[in-house]
Predict the structure.
Amino acid sequence: MKQDDINEIEWRNPANWTWRGPLGLYASKRDTRLLVPKAMPMMGWTLNFGHPGWTGVLVALAALALVLAVAQRLFT
């Protein structure tokens, strides 16, 4: 079985979703994708919270927000 097939099976598994509505969160360690379509794909994308790289993404976003806040404070 190819990894793409495993990813699809994991995405369809309701046990990997906290709630399958538009605001549901997804976590699967077997799914190699960092970004996955929401349970309702027309609603956009969500992070795979089971992927080890999501922590780095969230830390980077928090650091960016902090840098922007400090820069605004310094230059206004």
The two ends are 57 Å apart (CA to CA). The longest strand covers residues 35-37. The chain has a mean pLDDT of 92.
